[in-house]
Amino acid sequence: MSLLDDALAGRPVGRPLRAPLFAALAAQVEELDVREFLGDPGRRARIYADLARTLRPEVLVVDSGSGWDAEAAGMDLDWSDGYPPAIGWSSDLPRPSAGDAGPMVDLLRRVRAVVPEPTLLATTICGPATYAVGHGSLADGVRVTLAYARAVAEAGANVVFVRESAPELPDGYARAVTPLWGALKFVRAVGVLHAPWAAELSRGPFLPCVTSQVDVPHALAVPPGEAAPPTTNAALITHTVDLAGHVPVRELQAAARL
Question: Which of 64, 88, 230, 255 is deepest in the core (most CB within 10 A)?
Fold first, then answer.
């Protein structure tokens, strides 16, 4: 974690950590349906641990955007276009509140028990702007995201990707999410903002996840199957989306090198 701590403090970083996104593609290792695989924490933990030993990523991302948290909070998931599912509000959704984080907490604890050290663990949660789209307020969204962020960080997630689907930066977003980044820092987890407009919020106690390099420490996202360019300020390199549907499982080892 020292490298990521340095990045958050604005200090120079050395070689970036690799955080390939294959949490969904891993289902193909045993020719499983993605949704069936995602619902089986025991099998997921075993396969992720095996892949971690083979691929040796510095950061093992156990969920790349399945929407588990949004579904628990009462939102609908649309799987008609495959993985990742599209997220939308349920017509009878009550006032936004966090749902049960138990499945992800269980998965993180299982993976931590079997994955080789010193592998860092990461997971993805929906950001507050995603919850606020079409329903609810940004403040409600922050409360939901904050509850999930605390739960996964306390269960062993060293890195928490906060993924936003909102196409534009909402007014007041930077101030609204200050408690989120503070809570993650308090439990020694690193927040990574994965949003189309992350570079607009490039300063703060988090890493903006961007597709081209910026002057401040950041996470660099590259398309599946592409190699990352040489970088000086990237503390972490990941993919723009999960490799599922983009890279055959037989090419996973090459794709995970980033």
Answer: 64
Pairing of strands 234-239, 17-19: parallel
Count up the domains in the chain and report the number. Answer: 1
What secondary structure, in 3-state letters, does the chain show? CHHHHHHHCCCCCCCCEEECCCCCHHHHHHCCCHHHHHCCHHHHHHHHHHHHHHHCCCEEECCCCCCHHHHHCCEEEECCCCCCCEEEECCCCCCCCCCCCHHHHHHHHHHHHHCCCCCEEEEEEECHHHHHCCCCCHHHHHHHHHHHHHHHHHCCCCEEEEECCCCCCCCCHHHHCHHHHHHHHHCCCEEEEECCCHHHHCCCCCEEEECCCCCCCEEEEECCCCCCCCCCCEEEEEECCCCCCCCCHHHHHHHCCC
Per-residue pLDDT of the chain (258 residues; tens, 9 = 90+): 576 777 666 666 678 999 999 999 999 999 999 999 999 999 999 999 999 999 999 999 999 999 999 999 888 899 999 999 998 765 544 455 677 899 999 999 999 999 988 999 999 999 999 988 766 688 888 999 999 999 999 999 999 999 998 889 999 999 999 999 999 999 999 999 999 999 998 777 899 999 998 888 899 999 999 999 988 789 999 999 999 999 999 999 999 999
The CATH number that applies at residue 142 is 3.20.20.210
Structure tokens at 107: 């998965």
In terms of pTM, does the model score above 0.70?
yes
